[in-house]
Write a structure and sequence with these properties.
CATH class of the largest domain: Alpha Beta
Number of strands: 10
Largest sheet: 10 strands, mixed
CATH superfamily of the largest domain: Periplasmic binding protein-like II
Oligomer: single chain
CATH topology of the largest domain: D-Maltodextrin-Binding Protein, domain 2
Structural class: alpha/beta
CATH architecture of the largest domain: 3-Layer(aba) Sandwich
Strand content: 15-25%
Number of domains: 2
Radius of gyration: 24 Å
Length: about 270
């Protein structure tokens, strides 16, 4: 074989390897598409990522670190849980309970929130334990849960008014005395800041419902619980995604990309 032929052969091998590398890199650059079920925050099934900054931060971080492209599907809580248990996709925003853990695989908590009790300012009461809610109508989002202790109390002690995942309609119910207490999850640990946010928000989200004279929303000083928020998937559909998400969550909480879950428990 002449030197010229050897040179051409080496060039072909080089170009072939370069082409293969190019297409492999191009393929690897394509993010994995994955359905992400999230609870709708209003009456319309809009595709936008939720406005909650902590929620959005966690979703965006996992998506980036795992090179994913989420296809958002927003459902009411009841339908979300049904779709999740039918294997439609991954979900985010769930609390973990014994009942749910029987069929679902949960990630580590991505973040935590306080579950606050919101009342009319003229109907405030002392709260220190679940029994203090006995006889009161408690408004909570349909399909949501706040742990096993709450689930037990819900069936034995509490009067529950199930709400849509819509803050304006829930606040209106509270103002119109259809509920005595509204459960409201928020990442801010200061009840006065949450209270101020709700009172500032009401005229914007429900301009047709003016506040009664001398009445405002009050957030009770003691929160109901700390709610840890997870990713979850039907156990039979878990192809290792939960383990991958756990690694990303650990990394994010160690380097400060995600908030550490160190909220004080009651």
């Amino acid at each position: 074989m002449t030197i010229l032929k050897k040179t051409h052969q080496k060039r072909r091998y080089f170009l072939g390897a370069l082409t293969s590398l190019y297409f492999t890199a191009g393929w690897a650059a394509e993010p994995r598409k994955l359905v992400l079920l999230i609870a709708e925050s209003n009456a319309t099934n809009t595709p936008q990522v939720p406005y909650n900054p902590i929620f959005q931060q966690a979703v965006a971080y996992v998506e980036k670190e795992l090179h994913l492209q989420f296809e958002y599907r927003r459902y009411p809580w009841k339908r979300l849980l049904q779709s999740l248990n039918e294997g439609e996709g991954l979900a985010f925003g769930l609390s973990k309970t014994r009942e749910r853990a029987q069929t679902l695989h949960f990630s580590l908590p991505a973040f935590a929130t306080h579950v606050w009790l919101v009342v009319r300012s003229d109907q405030a009461f002392a709260f220190s334990r679940l029994a203090d809610l006995q006889g009161k109508t408690v408004g909570m989002v349909r399909g949501s849960t706040y742990g096993d202790e709450f689930e037990k109390a819900k069936s034995e002690l509490l009067l529950i008014e199930e709400d849509l995942y819509s803050l304006p309609s829930r606040l209106k119910k509270l103002l119109n005395r259809r509920t005595d207490v509204m459960l409201f999850s928020h990442h801010d640990p200061d009840p006065r800041k949450v209270e101020a946010m709700l009172n500032k928000t009401m005229p914007d989200v429900a301009p047709d419902t003016p506040m009664p004279p001398g009445v405002s929303f009050k957030v009770l000083d003691k929160f109901l619980s700390v709610d840890y928020i997870h990713f979850a998937i039907l156990a039979s559909k878990d192809d290792g995604i939960i383990e991958q998400i756990d690694k990303v969550i650990r990394k994010g909480q160690q380097d400060g990309s995600l908030p550490a879950n160190h909220l004080a428990k009651k």
